[in-house]
Structures are given as structure tokens and as C-alpha cells.
Amino acid sequence: MNAARRKLKLWEALALSLGLMGPTLAMAGNGQGLIAQVGSAVPLVFLLGAVGVGLVAYGFARLTRRYNHSGSAYALVGVTMGPRAGFVAGFTLMGTYLFFSICTVALLGAFLNAFLAAAAGGGAPPQVAWIVTAVIGVAISAYLNVRDTSTVARWLLVIEGFGIAAMIVLAIVIFAAGGNSRTGVTFEVFTFHGTTFGSVIAAVVAAFLSWAGFEGCAALGEETDQPRRNIPRALFGSVLLTGVLFVVVMFAQTIGFGTDPQGLKAFGSSGNTLGDLANTYVGRWFALLVIIAAVMSAFGSNLSSVATASRLMFALARDGFGPRQLAQVSGPSALPRNAVGVVFAAVLIVDLASYLSGWPHMGTGNAAIDSYFYFAVTGATCVLVVYLLVELAVFFAARRKLISVRMAELVIPGLGAVFILMVIWYGLRDQVGFSPAYLALIWVAIGVVIALTAPRLTKRIGASLAHELGEGREDLPDATEELVDR
Q1: 194 near 39, Cβ under 8 Å?
Q2: Which of 191, 344, 371, 452 is such that its CA lies 20 to 30 A from the CA of 460?
Q3: Cα 255 off chain centre by
Q4: Which distant-in-sequence residues (6+ apart) come within 8 Å of 255 by Cβ?
Q5: Which residues contact 427 (CB under 8 A, 6 or more apart)?
Q6: What global pTM score does this model have?
Q7: Selecting from 3.40.50.300, 2.60.40.10, 1.20.1740.10, 1.10.3210.10, what CATH number does the domain 15-469 have?
């Protein structure tokens, strides 16, 4: 890192974290897949999700007060629990963003067709096969991901800011109108009315999907001004802002469509919920603007997901996992182009297979939304495992005196770990068919097997983390060993 390079300010780290989450994408595409599971209780799901993410944010904040590394959870877990756990965290996080790369281009197809429908204003609007939009999106994203994307990133943040403003305006309009004329404003959506505790908790994994990326600013520690102060603030700031935003906007959407069967059906089958509601409550011109913002948000999320997945692939290959070609960089910006190419090849193969087979079926009635939601929930389940490891890492760091924590404070990561385990358990229980959670846990299991059977790899990871984080050791022990007293 060049010391002369300008350091990011607090607001810039916060903005980049928000940009990674893609709030407009989250609110336009993450509610539909929950209707069949929890009915009108979608706002309750997001309220519980906000609480859970807040508990997770504490773990990241405590650890980033001492450690700042571009590997984020890969380094935070590795330096506290040992290189094997660190590898599992890094491998799982790579899977998270690989699945997000797959799902976000599928959503581009749904959003484009929603735009065409809104522009037509009725009748039989022209529709494009979602795989066509996905392939075009992959091509553009590939072009930008092997070049300097700083200017593009700034514009995407501007567009995301417009999307957030538009969501707030839409929510105010829906509240002012008294919600849908058939059902009005009802706070029953924050209760278990019409659903069960287990169904709601199982659905929280999809709520976590909306916050996935909030920890992105933790990877900016080496580039941020006063990181031990500003990174924790950015973490809590992003969770607080989006927590309020997501709960309020999802509440507005639910009552906007209506909580009766007719409204819930319209909600669940919508190609872009924000666009449909904007068209109903404001007008076509506003709907088109909102959908454009959602399209750009989905594309921005794909850019960020590919960049993150490829860089984690590069980091793991540099430490000995995978072909050496994946650890190579090229071009004036020293980008890992080979890793980017592998990620895009995987995205094309999986999305093409999904389109041709008509799988998966998630009950939305929209093939593109089904594909998006399946792989998005897979990625969200993976990131839950990473978050669980971070919560456990706080305990290991406290026990080894790496961080100063009062015993009473450990209740927070403890509750976070219990909450995550409960969400994963209910997400697995009573599943029919090959659920997203099963695919995610298979990916995690592969990482565990590699970590347990590759001692040379974990030793190299330990040495790398020790050097980069200044632990003063050639390797780091596993979680069952004690660190040398500092």
C-alpha cells in the first residue's frame, strides 16, 4: 500500500459498504420469494434480520478495532482461530460472492422485462428471454472488471443514492394513501398471524441476503483513514441506516400490494416490486426511473460480487490453493484477470444450465426471479456460516487477550451465534427437494475437508497472515492451540 495514497474518509467507507449491499436491488427483488413461505409477515422477517445483522456487526467491529486486512473475515478468523478456520472462512466467503455473481445477472433479466412492461403501459409488452440479458450483462461486467472501475463505482453509488431516495418517496406516498384500498395499513405484518415461528425464522436467511456486503468496508481497512475508529463506525452506520430503511420500505411494499390473497399473489409474482408499486401509486414515469435504478443496482451488485469473488480466489491461490495462474495479475492496474475469467465462466455455465433446464422452482412464477432467489439464498446461507465464524472469533480473541472485552460484552456475539445457528437450523428443517441451504452446506463442507487434509496450505496461510498482520510469528496455531503471550 502506497503511504502517499489518499486515505478513504469515514463517509466514503460507509458509502462503499452501502454500494456493496445494493439497497435498491434488495428491496425490488428480495421479498417475492418469501410470500409463499410467510405470507404477509415479510416485514417481520426483515425486522428480525435487522436485529441479527446488528449482533453480527458487533463481532466485526470488535475485531476491526485491532485488525485491518483486505481479506476481511478470511483474516479476522484466521488470525484468531487459526489458519484452518481462516481458510474455511475465506473459501466460504468466495462461494458467497460466486453465488451472488450468478444470481444478480439472472435478476437483470427480470428487471429488464419489468421495465419493458412499465414502458408499454398495458397490453402484451415485449419480453426478452432472461438468459439473453444475463449474457449481455456478463459481457459488460467482464469488460469493466478487468479495467479501472473507480469512475464506474462512483456513478453506481450516485445511482444507488437516487434509488434510496426514490424508495423513501414511494414509501411516504403509500403511507399517505393509506396502503392498498382493500386492506389498508395493518401492523399484523409484524406478527406471526397466518404463519409460524419456524417459517419466519427460516425466512430470515433471505433477509440476511439483503444485508450481505455490509461487512465490505472491513476489507477497506488498509485504505481507510484511522481504520480502527472509522471501520467499526462504518459497519454500525451501514447496518443502522439500512436496518431502518429495509424494515420501513418492506412494510410499505406489503401494505401497498395488500395483505389479502390477491395482493400477496401480485407481490410474489412481481418482476420488480418497487416499479410495480411506483406505477400504481405515482405514475409510469416514476416507475421507469425506479426500475432503471434497480437495474443499475443489480448490475452494480454483480460488478462488486465478481470483483470480490475473483479477489478471494486470487488470495487463496496466492497462498497455495488452486492453480498458480489464478494468483497472477496483469495490466497496469495489476488485476487478477485469470481469476475474473474463471468466475465469469462459472456464472455463464450455471445461468445457462438454469435457463435450459427450467430449474430451480421457488414458487414465484417468474423463472428469472426463481433462479435469482435460489442462488441468492445459497450465497446468503454461506455468508451466515462466515458470520458465525466471526462471532466465534471474538471469543477466541478475548480468551487469548488479543482484544480487551468485558465478560458482559461477550453476551452480544453469543446471542449472534445462537441466532445464526437457529436461522440455519430452521432453514434446513422440513425442506423438500434440494434446497439452497443444502447446496451452501455442501460448499462449506468442501472447504472443511480441504482445510483438514492440506496441512501445507494451512501452514502457508498462517505464515502469510502472521506477516501481514504483524503477529510476529511464522505461523498461526489452530483454534485448539494457544497463542504465545504478546
Answers
A1: yes
A2: 344
A3: 26
A4: 174, 179, 180, 183, 184, 185, 186, 189
A5: 202, 205, 381, 435, 437
A6: 0.87
A7: 1.20.1740.10
